[in-house]
Specification:
282 residues, Alpha-Beta Plaits, Rossmann fold, four-stranded antiparallel β-sheet
């Protein structure tokens, strides 16, 4: 296997020997100052795996095991969660902040993303109900004043497009934001929840089917079918428990600065580097 090591800061020479020992291989290729590929590394279970994980955590390094023959162009679709994945914020929490009750909504969001609230529909319904009566103009304010792309997002998108992949943004958040991001970033497909607005006010309800974990996975499979792809040719990126089914349906799953339950289930976890870390895997 290839063992890919990435860091936000330059990887200094002293790391090379330690990582080579832990990977049980001396074949090291510097991809750039922030990334190494250790070829012919040994992924077999053993005490060195625990030591590798502990070493990387202590040094703020991300690592991933990748089959040597895998190429980015072997995939056909990148499916992304939006909140806290493609973007840095949880939009619903920021909307609530304009009404003075961010802490209450954020607590529900956090519990849901950790998997402590098993029913996403209930979680979303409870949070959206708290938005009732807010002026719909707060959505524009959140987008203009608070929404930021995650580090490396635009470089990652450019790289996957250059390799011929299509892009899907599928979110348990809201269409107001996914559609703006579709236009801004040139995304191919989006799916999210629609906030109900009457007379310029949020009603505290969503319209139509709620985009929960099952719907996210179904959307990935349907988009793959539309493109003539097997789901194994999809890459899925997410951070919360609502992304787990979508990530399980894909051929490669990436946990991005994710909750522990998601990191444990994913093929690859990026705890430190940006979304463009995806490009260095191949």
């Amino acid at each position: 296997m290839h063992l890919i090591i990435q860091s936000l800061t330059p990887i200094d020479a002293p790391h090379y020997a330690a990582l080579a020992t832990l990977a049980r291989s001396q074949h090291i290729v510097a991809l750039d100052s922030h990334a190494l590929r250790i070829e012919d590394a040994d992924p077999a279970p053993g005490p060195w795996q625990t030591e590798l994980s502990a070493y990387c955590a202590a040094q703020a390094l991300d690592y991933a095991w990748i089959e040597p023959e895998r190429k980015l162009a072997d995939f056909g679709l990148v499916a992304m969660d939006m909140d806290s994945t493609l973007i840095t914020i949880e939009c619903i929490d920021e909307i609530a902040d304009y009404g003075g009750f961010k802490a209450e909504v954020a607590a529900i969001t956090e519990a849901s993303m950790r998997g402590e609230i098993k029913d996403f529909n209930e979680s979303l319904t409870r949070r959206v109900a708290l938005l009732k009566g807010l002026d719909a103009g707060v959505l524009e304010r959140v987008y203009d004043e608070r929404l930021a792309l995650s580090p490396g997002a635009e470089r990652m998108l450019a790289g996957v497009r250059a390799a011929g992949l299509k892009t899907l943004l599928v979110s348990g958040g809201f269409t107001f934001f996914t559609e703006k991001l579709r236009e801004r970033l040139g995304l191919d497909f989006t799916r999210a929840n629609t906030l109900e607005i009457v007379a310029g006010k949020l009603t505290g309800r969503v319209s139509g089917e709620i985009v929960n974990a099952e719907v996210k996975a179904r959307t990935l499979r349907e988009t793959c079918a539309q493109l003539g792809l097997a789901p194994s040719r999809a890459i899925a990126l997410g951070d919360g428990s609502n992304d787990l089914q979508m990530m399980a349906a894909a051929g490669l799953s990436v946990a991005f600065r994710a909750k522990p339950v998601v990191r444990a289930a994913a093929s690859v976890a990026f705890n430190y580097v940006g979304l463009d870390g995806l490009l260095r895997l191949f």
